[in-house]
Specification:
The chain is α+β, with helices and mostly antiparallel strands. The chain has ten helices and four strands. It has three domains: 96 residues, no CATH class; 31 residues, no CATH class; 138 residues, no CATH class.
Length: 288
């Protein structure tokens, strides 16, 4: 009886399949979930080749792209799996391409870099700042290009503003002539014109800041939807606002000063009549 029971138990152990472990969990890209219609808790198959045999896993989390400029133009999806599962899936072996080490401060970073580089041949450690600079060279070129465009725009705006001020002040020649004939001094007229130019520049600065802010909101809304990233493509910072207002006031004052000086140097009657006065020339005859 005992032998029969042992035989039955042995046969059952041979015929029965081993207990199957529950599927592992993975985290997939939020964009992949939207495009493929995947939701949390769904089961998907991870395979190293399309249509090949892979592992069934459960989607347990969704990851969102970081605000990293280097990842904006990339259209690939990311799946985060457990290291041992990823290792068996891709068949890469016990190797890694890169790994990150967190440190407390800059001195710890320097000592860790030195220790890793001196550990063995083939290792090369870099700080996160060096990697960011190396991967951002393209964006540095774009930033310099934008800076050059900004300088050209400022110079063109200064010339345009000067021309507008010259035309506006020239239209008020009769007013300036009347002030001159009333005994108002030239410096007082110049100061009045500069104050008016400063007010116009101030109002223009406020309007420009408002237009820039609205434009940045529209640009961010459009390109965040196109690239599906939280990256800010256009920002209006306090530093930019201060620089824009300072440049506007400075250029406005300079343009007002130049235009006012051009008028006050002309005779009052010439400003009033609009005719160029010919000054009499004295001819001195030599005594013979």
């Amino acid at each position: 009886m005992v032998a029969a029971l042992l035989a039955v138990a042995f046969l059952q152990s041979i015929d029965s399949t081993p207990p199957r472990s529950s599927p592992r969990s993975v985290a997939i890209d939020e964009r992949l979930a939207q495009d493929a219609g995947i939701r949390l808790g769904d089961r998907i198959v991870l395979s190293s080749t399309p249509g090949g045999i892979g592992d069934t896993v459960i989607v347990s989390a969704l990851t969102r792209r970081r605000a990293d400029p280097s990842e904006v133009a990339r259209g690939d999806y990311r799946v985060r799996a457990h290291l041992d599962e990823l290792q068996s899936l891709i068949g890469y072996g016990d190797r890694v391409d890169r790994f990150a080490v967190a440190t407390h401060d800059s001195s710890s970073t320097s000592s860790a870099i030195g220790a890793i580089n001196a550990a063995a041949f083939g290792f090369q450690a870099y700080s996160s700042r060096e990697i960011a600079v190396e991967t951002s060279r393209t964006f540095l070129v774009v930033s310099r290009f934008h800076r050059a465009i900004g300088v050209i725009t400022i110079v063109a705006s200064a010339i345009f503003l000067l021309c507008i001020m010259l035309l506006k002040v020239d239209e008020r020649r009769r007013d300036v002539a009347a002030l001159r004939l009333m005994g108002i001094s030239a410096p007082s007229i110049v100061r009045a014109v500069m104050v008016e130019a400063a007010l116009v520049a101030g109002v223009g600065s406020v309007a420009g800041v408002g237009i820039g802010w609205v434009a940045s909101v529209i640009i961010n809304w459009h390109y965040r939807g196109v690239y599906r990233t939280p990256l800010a493509f256009a920002i209006v910072t306090p530093g930019i606002v201060v620089l824009a207002v300072a440049l506007s006031l400075t250029l406005g004052l300079v343009a007002g000063f130049v235009a006012a000086q051009r008028l006050v140097r002309m005779p009052a009657l010439e400003l009033l009549t609009g005719r160029h006065e010919r000054r009499p020339r004295a001819v001195v005859a030599p005594q013979g």
